[in-house]
UniProtKB/TrEMBL annotation:
Alphabetical list of Pfam families matching this protein: Phosphodiest
InterPro entries: Alkaline_phosphatase_core_sf (IPR017850), Phosphodiest/P_Trfase (IPR002591)
Protein name per the record: Uncharacterized protein
Amino acid sequence: MFLIRYAGVENTLRLFGSNSDEGRQAISRSDLYVHDLQTKKSLLLFSSLYSQFQQKLEERGLFESTNLVVISGHGLRSVDSEEQFYIEECLADFSKITKIVNSHSMMMVFTDPDELDEVFFELKVCDQWAPMGDYDEGDNPLVSVYRTSELPEKFHWKSSRFMPGIIIMTRPGATVLTRELPSIPAGDEHARDIRQTGGWDNDNVEMRGVFMARGPAFKTNHESLPINMVDVYQVLLNILGVEPPHRHNGSWANVEDLLSSGWESRTSPDSISSSTSTARSFLCLILLCMLSY
């Protein structure tokens, strides 16, 4: 098994957006790279390292039996330039914030324990993202401010010892930034200029990533229902003939239908015949960091 991480799509879409010439070119290039992987052409992106690997597979008659998986962690969405906010405009005293982690779609706000309630109140009632005009109470607010203990269960964050006391989440398209507060990653004067980003609520369809696969383990011309990122781990182990060494959060029922006959029932290396185990254990995983819908 080997993993190739390609960030060209993510970086370009963040800077230029998916409707730009640069964005379309980046997506076309990634399509070409994946196509070349499957048609045995020379692959400039991965230089001679891939060529040597491909040659060794072909020499051993393993190229056609190698499974190729292309995956992205999540999708990207365009940023609404009219819905960008700075957290400083909500605060009377910046010294009450010890640090900020992340920005844009979600922000973690760390404070001294004694200051948490006051900072939470200031953020909760902040005028800059308060509902205005013909606001429908059924609409999602532009910005939601949570005590970590009150976060929705679906995020699986509220009991983490690494979380701060306050979490800010924005509606898809809206972003929250910092100019002056200590932050991780460090604040960037160009942060307001990004065209697309991710990290919003994963129930939003635009946050869905990509999962594409071909090879002996997978059905052909098959379109699956959406799967969860935690489901992928068990698919890879199944292809390699490895039993999961520990409990995980994936659901086999979500991915079983992806696999071709015989592969969906493989539960241990013992179920693979010795004559085919080597030929079927190769797996190429390409991580296209993020793709845009």
